[in-house]
Q: What sequence folds into this?
């Protein structure tokens, strides 16, 4: 299969810079997969798993939230947060999950607070899910 | 003589403090500098991608790109939590005040000094959740970016600017003003070659809060590195001044001591009647 050059950057530094066969990720509308030779394309990134297929056919899994995905001469994933499954701190994610759940259960929140807590919960759950998927393999 | 002795003591203890602060600043500076350098490619990539969409997606309009009549402007002013950093804080405020002149303003201060400064001047703050710059995370920046985007859409303010300090080098830091909103429309359109899903407007509107967060994060990283750089330089020169004072005072002390001994000998000799 043909390869294309892929760049993944976050505010905390680069996460990937090299060749890949395919990238699959969750946009605000649903999953997309991009392979070499795609038309110029741009979309906003949602909260979900991201899979990168490397030139040797192996697959890497990551948790990816928010940002911008654009396909041009190089394919760029500019993520707000992007963590490879093996880099995820499960204890921290579990604690964040618990905190968000407790705060939601405590009640007496306005709509904006509730939405931001639910968002946080969704991210923490995603991290845990991604980390567990890799452990099972 | 006792006076001089105690002066030397007090200068010495001051020197110890400035020396310690210099060490702390330089060890933190290395980390902050790395962080600032890491965040730069992100900002560059984000900026390039935003420009690509704006240029390549054909005609579309986003509320973030519309130029409105500016009645009220919002300023994100990034300064330090503490003083003792030479002219770092005052340079930021000077730049901010010059740029703010003649406008009705509100601020979103980052850093305790900044919050205190604008509270004293009676300029209303949009938010005061981000007053400590030292433990500000990328997530906090995302929250602030969200807040600014919502405030802008709701018409709370008609433009957003950020005042931060560019980390040029260890010895040179430059305060700067960066306009955030409204986004500037691109100069040239290359036609509708770029496919946007769901559509250019939706993509743009979803990305703007992230874009703001990215820019703010980079500005915070740059500013924090600058603060430490400025503090290190200031503390280094303070330690040097203290050294110079100590050596001058020691000279005075030794002279006084010698003069006292000489006088005593003279008195003894005179008293013995030799």
A:
């Amino acid at each position: 299969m043909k390869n294309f050059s892929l760049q993944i950057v976050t505010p905390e530094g680069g996460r990937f810079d090299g060749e890949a066969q395919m990238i699959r990720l969750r946009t605000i509308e649903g999953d997309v997969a991009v392979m070499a030779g795609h038309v110029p394309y741009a979309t906003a990134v949602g909260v979900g798993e991201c899979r990168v297929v490397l030139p040797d056919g192996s697959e890497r899994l990551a948790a990816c939230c928010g940002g911008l995905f654009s396909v041009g001469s190089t394919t760029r994933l500019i993520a707000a947060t992007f963590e490879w499954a093996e880099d995820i701190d499960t204890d921290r994610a579990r604690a964040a999950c618990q905190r968000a759940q407790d705060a939601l259960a405590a009640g007496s929140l306005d709509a904006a607070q509730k939405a931001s807590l639910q968002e946080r919960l969704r991210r923490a759950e995603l991290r845990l899910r991604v980390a567990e998927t890799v452990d099972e393999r | 003589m006792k006076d001089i002795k105690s002066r030397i003591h007090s200068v010495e203890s001051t020197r110890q403090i400035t020396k310690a602060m210099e060490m702390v600043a330089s060890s933190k500076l290395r980390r902050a500098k790395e962080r600032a350098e890491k965040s730069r490619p992100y900002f560059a990539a984000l900026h390039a991608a935003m420009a690509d969409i704006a240029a390549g997606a054909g005609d579309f309009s986003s509320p973030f790109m519309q130029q409105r009549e500016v009645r009220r402007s919002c300023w994100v002013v990034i300064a330090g939590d503490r003083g003792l950093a030479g002219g770092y804080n005052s340079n930021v405020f000077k730049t901010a005040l010059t740029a703010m002149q003649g406008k009705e303003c509100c601020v979103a201060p980052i850093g305790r000094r900044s919050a205190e400064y604008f509270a004293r001047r009676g300029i209303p703050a949009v938010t005061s959740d981000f007053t400590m710059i030292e433990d500000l995370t990328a997530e906090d920046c995302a929250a602030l970016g969200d807040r600014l985007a919502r405030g802008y859409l709701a018409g709370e303010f008609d433009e957003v600017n950020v005042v931060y300090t560019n980390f040029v080098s260890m010895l040179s830091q430059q305060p700067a003003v960066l306009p955030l909103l409204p986004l500037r429309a691109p100069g040239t359109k290359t036609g509708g070659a770029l496919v946007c899903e769901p559509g250019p407007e939706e993509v743009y509107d979803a990305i703007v809060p992230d874009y703001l967060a990215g820019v703010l994060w980079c500005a915070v990283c740059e500013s924090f590195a600058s603060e430490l750089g400025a503090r290190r330089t200031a503390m280094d020169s303070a330690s040097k001044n203290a050294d110079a004072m100590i050596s001058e005072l020691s000279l005075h002390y030794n002279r006084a001591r010698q003069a006292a001994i000489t006088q005593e000998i003279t008195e003894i000799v005179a008293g013995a009647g030799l």
